[in-house]
Amino acid sequence: MSxxxxxxxxxxxxxxxxxxxxxxxESVEDMCNIITNVLILKYQLTKKQLAQIxxxxxxxxxxxxxxxxxxxxxxGMEINDLSDLRFPSEDSIEFTVMHDxxxxxxxxxSQNKIKDKFFKIPILNNIQIKSDRINLSxxxxxxxxxxxxxxxxTCAYFGSVNIFFFLISNQKYTISKECLRYSLIGRNTDxxxxxLKKYLMDKDCLRDxxxxxxxxxxxxGLERNFFTYNDxxxxxxxxxxxxxxxxxxxxxxxxxxxxxxxxxxILPWCAAFPQTIDIIKNEKITDKTxxxxxxxxxxxxxxxxxxIVKFLFNSTIKIDVNHHDMYSMTALHYAAxxxxxxxxxxxxxxxxxxNNELSRNKINHSNIxxxxx
Length: 373
Prior knowledge:
22 helices; about 5% strand; about 375 residues; single chain; two-stranded antiparallel ribbon; mainly alpha; Serine Threonine Protein Phosphatase 5, Tetratricopeptide repeat
């Protein structure tokens, strides 16, 4: 059934899956065309939204950093301070390991010692995205967060299978718990299977799988019950539910896979994807709220598309238009934040509160003007 729902949107799903696995020596022309014609023109994703996802892809597929810079430039986004990201030179041992040059690696270690913290991957969460620019200086000004990888973890992260097995068979390296997590990013099946002999996937693994659009691995994990459905709920350590990452990084395939395994799990948050309208039409929808007290109307207003909002008000579903989430936000506030003028007009026509300070502030800080409402 989920396959039927997904079929009309395979272009959307495959666009993001391709984005996260671009090779460093691959032309980006095809990817740029897909982003323009499919994601921007057809599905109306914003540049800011795409930039956020492309930066995540850069972090997960660090060997292709230059290609992601080209893709960002193609959508009119420049990265400040890109040169400050530490990227290995071609004659370095780090570059050798990244690209799995096993013979060069063997020559190197016969004469040199490897440091414990072998490779650093920047965690680019604290960045500023403006209309045409990504400012990495926020990352550099604050406490710099990095993944500090050991040699064997680096092999797992980049899928360097020949060096990985050389290390565990000839050099007696031990597979760490983090190796499994990084192997899911590196996507080498042999390394993943070797790591699974020692460790089980955890919530960190699940988050990386979802954020990186590694949907074949998500399907594999769901089929084998590696994850519980509670794993997708709010994490009181990071304070972010994995389903929020599904929305943030637009992993539509994950929505359909979860629907196939547990229909109730995707409600109400699936409404953030306009592509789930047929599911919403065919399921028994209630005014269910999530752990942040958001209902389906809140989520339906989180995209520029108002089709689900229209359907909800034309249906027999009883929804409180002025329902506040735990942050005192109504559906109107989310519609304004996402510049969804149609949704704003629909909400106002159904009696949403407008004349309060929070509502006016949200609308005034969006591209929507009261004069247009």
